[in-house]
Structures are given as C-alpha cells and as structure tokens.
Amino acid sequence: MDYFLTDEQKTIKSLARQIAEERVLPVRAELDEKEEFPWDIMRELGSSDMFRVFIPEEYEGLGGGCLELCLVVEELSRVCSGVAVSYAASALGCMTLMEYGTDEQKRIFLPGIASGEKIGAFAVTESTAGSDISNIKTTAEKVEGGYLLNGTKQFITNGGEAAIYTVIALTDKTRGARGASAIIVEKDTPGFIFGKKEKKMGIRSSATRELVFKNCLVPEENLLGKPGLGFIQALRLFDKSRPGIGAQAVGLAQGALEAAVDYAEQRVQFDQHIINIQAVQHMLADMAIQTEAARALVYAAARHVDSGAKSVTEESSMSKVFASDTAMKVATDAVQICGGSGYMRDYPVEKMMRDAKILQIYEGTNQVLRNTIALNLRKRKGRTA
Amino acid sequence: MNIVVCMKQVPGTTQVKINPETNSLVREGIENIINPFDTYALEEGVRLREKYGGKVTVVCMGPPQAESALREAISLGADDVILLSDRAFAVADTWATARTLSAAMKKLASYDIIICGRQTIDGDTGQVGPELAEMLEVPFVAYVSNIEEIKESYLRVRRMVEEGHEIIETSLPTVITVAKEINVPRLPSLRGIMKSKNAAITTWTIADLNVSPDMVGLAGSSTQVIKIFFPQRVHRAEILEGDLDTQVDTLIDRLKGANLC
Questions:
Q1: Residue A47 is nearest to which of B186, B193, B194, comparing CB atoms?
Q2: Computed over its alpha carbons, how large is the radius of gyration of chain A?
Q3: Is residue A363 annotated as a catalytic residue, yes or no?
Q4: Could you tell me if A100 and A202 lie in one domain?
Q5: I need a labelling partner for B91 at 20 to 30 A (CA). Which of A126, A282, B24, B133 fits?
C-alpha cells in the first residue's frame, strides 16, 4: 500500500528497517532471554540519528513529528517490540519538554537526547495511580532553592537507564489533580534512587523500574510550564504519543504475519505446504487485512497529530486501541499457524505474542480509551465532519 | 590529520557471469556495492578523524555510476569524495589502477595516511595497495587489524600474519590495507544520507592528473586478461564394493597408489 510518504520519511523508514534487521534481529532472542537493556542498539540508533527524528532542528534534531517517530517505532517493533519501546520512551520523556519547556530548558536537555547520548523517560504511574491517573501521591514541595520530591513512581519504562526524567508530582497536594506539575529530574540527583527492575511477561529487553524520591531537591528551573498544569500536560502528551504505541503494534503484527507466512510456506502436512490449506489461507488473509487497516489508521492519526489539530484525543485513542487489539490477535494467530513450533522459544512468534499483551495495557488501557472515545462520540452525537 | 580512503565499486554478488566474447564480467542487472573490504577502510578512516580530527577524503576510480558508492561513503561519514573517471582509465590492471590512484594522491598533495581494503571481491588480487605505496615511495603495511597509536609522523599498527600478529611501527605518511577484523562498520546516519543526496561529487579526468594516457587504463596495463572462464568441475566419486575389510584394503591401496599414505 502506498501511503504517500515523502522521500525523507521513506529514508527514515528504510534506515530503521536496516538497523532492525542487521543489528536487532541477531540479538533479539538473547535480549529477551537475558532481560538485558539493549545499550549497543540504543547507541547505534543514536549514531544513525534516529533520536533526532522527533526533535526540532534548532535543538539538533531533524524536525520530524509524530509520523516520523511512528515509522521508526514500527520498523523496530517489526523485529523487537522491547527495543522499539525503549526507543519510543525516550521520545515520551521529552515531549512535555518540547511542548511546554522554555527555550533555555530545551537548549539544556534536548541536544543530549537528539544525539542519543542521553535517554529520556516519563513518569506518572504509581501504585495507587494506574488508570486512575489523578490519584498520585508523589509530592514536589516548594522549598528554598527548588522543589523537594518525595514518593515512588512505578513501572517506569527506561527507569534506571534514562538520564532525563519528566516526573508528574503534586506541587500543591491540597488541590489534588489541579495541584500536579511536570518537573524534569536528572539521574544522579541526590535523593533520586531506583527500585527493583521488574520481571515482565514481554518486552523483556526494555527496562521497567521504580523511581524512588527521598527528599530529592530539584532546581526550580526544572519545572515545565506553569505549576498545577501537570495533568493537562500529561493528558495532552498521551494524546500525541498514542499513535506511537499504535505503530509499535503495527510493527509487531507485521513481524508476526511475516513469520506465519514464512512458516506456512515451508511446513508440510498431509503431503502439502500448509499455506495451500484454505483454513490457513483465510487466517493469514485476515491477519493481513487487520494489519494493513491498523497501519492506515495509525498513519492517519499520526498525520492528524502533526497537522496541529486542536483535538486529537479520539483519533489517537482509536489508533492505539485498534492497532493493539490487532497486534494481540495477529500474534496469537501467528502462534496458532506455527502450531507446536510456534509455542517454542526457538521461533519468534511466542515472543511476539508475549510482547503484544502490554500494548493493550499501557498508555491507557484499551478499556479506558474506549471510555474516552465513547465520551467524545456523545459530544459529537456520532456525527463526522 | 588528512586521511585518504581508496574505494572501489564492485558487483554485489559472488554469482558473476562472464561475457565470453569480451572476457569481461556481465554487470547488467547486478546491483553494485562498495567493495566490502573498503567499508572497513572507510570506517577506520572515520574513526581516526573522530579521534584525532582532520578530514576523510574518499577516492574511487570507476565509471560514472560509481558516484553512488561515493554518495554512500558520504552517508557513512566521508567529508570529501573524488571520482576518478575517464575512458582512458578503463580496463586497467592493478598496476595501471595504482598509477591512476597515485597520480590522484599527488594532486591531493597532503595526506598522512592512505587506507585501502585488503583486496576487492571481484579482482581479489590485493595488489593495488602495495603498488600504490611503491609508486608514492611511502611505507606500506598490509592486513592491519588494529591501529595502536598515531603520533606526529609516527604510526604503530598490529597486522595479521599466518602465525599470529605483528606489531609494526612506521613513519607517516604511509599506506595500509586493513583486514575485516579491524572494526565493525557503522550503519549510515540520517544526516549523512541527507547530506549525501545533495553533495557535489568532484570528478577528475585524465586532464586533471599529471599522467600520460599510455600509463593508465588498458594502455598502461602490463598484464592483459586473455581469457576468463569458470573452472570445470569434475566430480569423480567412486563407491567401493565388497565387505568392510575389502573396502578398507582397496582404500589403503588407492591412497598408497596416490602417495597419500
């Protein structure tokens, strides 16, 4: 399918594919098995300018937007979703800064992320605040010389590996959600320590850790935008980042589809290659239809975000929900087609099936996002423009 | 530091076909690539620049379409590229190739280290590097697997020999050829690719080099390819008959007969 990508977008996609095939593919099983953070690959992505893709040109980036980011994430995820999310989370970690930061804040933090020398992370989730995102407890008390952070963030992607963290904390706990603010915290700030590294079902090469703040003093100038806007900033961030998760899902589904076709082409049962069996053909056809539809929706949502549209919540939520449900279905069917072999770790599809599940959970569970879509649907009475 | 890397564009396959009438390789329909050994030379050049400063100039002799190899070289970190292209340079043997390259080096005037791949995957001779050094009257080290140290007009390298490794010190400027053990070439960068698309490719013809037409190309070649052919593959397998002892005896007789035991 021709998505009318520009030459530059095609170049980005094809280089991302080359990196995925030459550098990620040979080590993906080992990274998964050892739950090892892919530092070598992150460095390679850095030297190939992949972290520049989503950063404005004035801060040493290439000035791309949501679609460019999606293209890289899709290609990485086609080979390994764990690597893809480690890359994407760096973008997530600096998107609030890009939107609300001052020129000086951007000048300080963005070039390091653009070069790949530093990785970013975003931290809002806590043990009491998952889908109920406003129920965070971490505080950032205004004191002389800055903000004093106390509390624990949970399940933070790139936790411990990232150098720059955007943390949502309560600067005014009497105001609840309206007292939250986004603050940049650098690794190695005294009082900022990392909790245990989580053992996960999938995306096991990515690092997921607790962030613990114990009287961690952060300079006042690290606050992004105005105090009290933290939740609005976080919600807007997710509105723009969700197509990225959709792209991760599209890449994963594509990888699973390819693996299933390859297997069905060579597996012989009843004296024929199983790809000649109509039951298998129909499964593969459905997988292809769903994957392509998900890609079309993700690219469209990403372009909608890049257009500067005022409201993108519904579109970006749709792209994330549809693509992640697709990835789960396609990966499960890929395992089914590969049969007993597909269930074994020697084949890539069991990993893809494990990796797919998180896509329906993080950056808004698909149930919460359906609530959001339904809410918007009621507002517009189901009508389209 | 002025670093020069020599590069050749070659057919990206080992499944070459030969045109029996012209005794040359059939290049139609085959994707051209940078000679893989030269990618290690370029990577080492770029790493030297990153460490010591200076610039990397890539020199390539070939037909006009070799420009694509030079654009790729830019995407991989080359600062300057020069294509040596002229009908007069065509059908050169290693000697005439080295002669052309050496004329280009002299025109460049300033070079501290010239890095070549150990050989090409089409010609496979491994001669151009040493011949180039000879013509430039500078030291030469082959099969370099590590550059240990560079100081002002001094170079220490490790090179691979059959029995192990040698550490060699030499003066600069010098020519080295590198083995693939020396590094893992990087992938291109997006900025490099974008730069390469608009980069100007300098082309030097015979008129730009201080060299007479009879010293380069076919005219300057001291060897000529008379015939090029695939070796005939003769499979002569024989299944020995009889019981195990008889088979063993027959085998030993055969080996003795062939003076193999």
A1: B186
A2: 21
A3: yes
A4: no
A5: B133
